[in-house]
Specification:
alpha+beta, Glutaredoxin, Glutathione S-transferase Yfyf (Class Pi), Chain A, domain 2, 2 domains, globular
Length: 208
């Protein structure tokens, strides 16, 4: 059985989309970050990183329990475990998926996070900081838009974990005050993924 510990953040939503796309049964556990539940001893006993999402699989490799603490690893692990096609078997395609999934995890998401916070959570004008991080965000969206020229999906010609690694951050475009109309390829790609039933379930509010 799978147990997913998560909250309503882009990384947390990746974890939930991963389990929904896998089709495997799971138990959902809300970890309220606003109430700092992630730093409680009870959660640290589950997740050494004290972050979300965390996935516990009671039937991991070789039938042994395993705990996974990063959304990118959870995406790849569940795609492989379920055989849902979101992680390819071809070595060349694997490299394409790996590098673009890493781009979503290490470059795209962290590059957008400061702008979302400045626009929605940090009081004050902060004009200089907003201008700096808006420029960074726009370059990241432009990179993704160019990548999606004549491509249906980010890494290869079908939906993979690399798409989810970018999608949950684009799903916060309103918080970032980014107009997707300026990035038509991103907008087209975003709407296709948003329409997936498993993605809709993965975006449903946790702990609401």
């Amino acid at each position: 059985m799978l147990d997913l510990y998560t909250w309503n953040t882009p990384n947390g939503q990746k974890g939930r989309i991963a389990v929904e796309e896998s089709g495997l049964p799971y138990n959902l556990h809300a970890v309220n970050l606003t109430a700092a539940e992630n730093v409680r001893e009870s959660y640290r006993a589950i997740s050494g990183s004290r972050r979300i999402p965390t996935l516990v699989d009671s039937e991991g490799p070789s039938g042994k329990p395993i705990t996974l603490i990063e959304s990118g690893i959870i995406l790849a692990y569940l795609a492989k475990k379920s055989g849902n096609g979101m992680y390819p078997t071809d070595p060349g395609e694997q490299l394409e998926v790996d590098q673009w999934a890493m781009h979503g995890q290490a470059t795209f998401g962290p590059g957008l996070t400061p702008l979302g916070h400045l626009e929605t959570r940090i009081p004050g004008d902060n004009a200089g900081a907003k201008a700096f991080f808006r420029g960074r965000a726009e370059r990241l969206y432009d990179t993704l838009n160019l990548r999606l020229v004549n491509r249906p999906f980010v890494a290869i010609n079908r939906y993979t974990v690399a798409d989810v690694a970018h999608f949950t951050w684009v799903n916060r475009h309103a918080d970032q005050k980014i107009d997707l109309g300026k990035y038509p390829n991103v907008k087209r790609w975003y709407e296709v993924i948003l329409a997936r039933p498993a993605v809709q379930r993965g975006l449903a509010v946790v702990g609401g």
